[in-house]
Amino acid sequence: xxxxxxxxxxxxxxxxxxxxxxxxxxxxxxxxxxxxxxxxxxxxxxxxxxxxxxxxxxxxxxxxxxxxxxxxxxxxxxxxxxxxxxxxxxxxxxxxxxxxxxxxxxxxxxxxxxxxxxxxxxxxxxxxxxxxxxxxxxxxxxxxxxxxxxxxxxxxxxxxxxxxxxxxxxxxxxxxxxxxxxxxxxxxxxxxxxxxxxxxxxxxxxxxxxxxxxxxxxxxxxxxxxxxxxxxxxxxxxxxxxxxxxxxx
Length: 249
What we know:
The chain is mainly alpha-helical. The chain has one domain (6-241). It is 59% helix and 3% strand. It has helices at 6-18, 30-39, 46-59, 71-79, 83-89, 102-112, 124-134, 144-148, 155-172, 179-201, 204-216, 230-241, and strands at residues 67-68, 116-118, 121-122. A three-stranded antiparallel β-sheet has the order 1-2-3. Strand 2 and strand 3 form a beta hairpin. The protein is globular, with a radius of gyration of 17 Å. It starts with 5 loop residues before the first helix and ends in an 8-residue tail after the last helix.
């Protein structure tokens, strides 16, 4: 994984902040993170979950194509996660990703994949968005327009993703998944692995992420534990970094 200078990391966050897609900026997502924190804490809060779910459907593309679970069934899906999976992943940070997480991650994805049915298999976009707001410390949003078709098309990320997908495919091959499901799960787990490596190879991402957060949320209440939102930090960094030469095409 590439190691960047502090200057480059600082510039990546500055570039990200100046991108025209303002919907991705933290100031426009702060209330959503705060609602999600309440929705998934202390046994869950259905009204707060409904607020998050409705917003994801309205402006985050959750209901595009496919068959989406009702809000009640989606809430119950998270509430019914096993204690083992809750304890393993609810507060886990992405920088702590390890190869021995893959088996339980696959189990979690198999459950959350029920959120949306597509003809071609699970919706990684839908899974990743719900999981991100369940735990933004660990789960990266992997949407098509930004992360899949832009960020991970850059060779320095794509090549590493391809290498790790060989390992994750082998890891999920023991399950009796359809080919489409196996590909979706192995790719998303590999994305998390790449992002974890990026964080661990570039410790200054955390520092400049929090500076970015403070600029974005000046005078506002932060979500609890915002400093530890590793997934949000690495998403923001990578989108900014892929708009910097020589990493942008």
